Amino acid sequence: MSDQQAISARSWPSVRGWLIGVSAVALIAVGWLTALHAALTVGLMLLAALVYAIGNAVWLRRALRRAGVQAIRRPNPPEPSWGTPTVITVIATGARLPLALIWRTDARVRDRVHPNVASYEGTVSLELSRSGWQASYRVTPLARGLWPLGPLKFRFTDVMGLITTRVIHREVTNLVVRPRVIHLEHTAPRSAGIASDRITERAIGSLLPDSDDALLREYVPGDDVRRVHWPTTARRSTLMVKNEESMPMTPITLILDGLLVPSTDISGTIRRPGQSATRDARVIAAHWSVDLAATLAANLAQHNTRVQLNLTASGQYEPAIESADILDTLTELPDLTKISDPARLVELVATAGEGLLLAIMAPALKDGRAQLARAGQDRRAGTSIAVIVSDESNQSEAALTQQALTEQGWRVIEARLPDADVAAIAQAVIQP
Length: 432
What we know:
CATH class of the domain at 252-430: Alpha Beta
Distance between the termini: 52 Å
Shape: elongated
């Protein structure tokens, strides 16, 4: 968007301006008709003041369009997680901003604050500085996503307060609010073994002591003894050999139930400063499952483990999402509760194929429990782990779902909101 397109301006007379204009016309008319020079003089002076104010407004609009006005917004941190205190610095400046603008007008500059960023709907005022106007304000974003900062609004009034000019710089800056990602310690999974069919069934939670072990596998008859890695062999009390070359890694399948992804948009409920909802149970529940998925994907990706994310929502989320795109996808997730089908969860489990399956899911109903358990049992190979996310309203369904999955060989972890801790659950998944 060019500077000319980004800026729109409008001027109008203030109440004082209207009074001055009407008085000027009346005095000039009276002085002309009655030959009262005093009335004519005063009327002409008032008219001259009004003409000056109009000319000043015209000059101001042209000057701002030519000044190359820029709205610079710098959030710190640049891409905060939801619930993270963030300082946003706003600078309004221009390479050709006229110095006369400072003393010829009374300027008020405000930047719009999105309610999903600040927990309230309103604006922030910028103060005059050497290079233009700037301000820093502190917010706590409560909804993940891309939220606009701006537009920037200038309001100028001439020194006599006769004409008001409003200039809007329409260019906005999107603040990227991420899910909360918790980086766990000592999370190197033996799932590097998932790359080899010889140790596919080794649980993700079994750790290898150093990163070199990701290039190792267990000895099988026929392997060259020169490839035995003796330090690891001594540490594990079993023969370990170096892989000849990197093998294609079987991905870990991560399934996120869309029924656990409601909207995080709070713009319709919080309107005024001070109505923070950081500890609101509904806000926590809306983010919890997405935070867990992001935490698992990020920690596994740190150790070169390939993760594929599947969502139970139809449409654009049907293809599996690769590791590099998972965080961006989770950041921009809309409300999936209305476009998610429990049958899709069963289908994803049944077609997961080899390797490890991690399912973050809501408690299933009676028919869904049986189908889901059978689908996990019928998988060709690999371990199935389910994190059942529940609250007080569906505890019985969660217990029955856990029982049905456990009977079919699933490893089940229960997460009861709002008290469940993302880090603890993620740790239990990766390092049982």
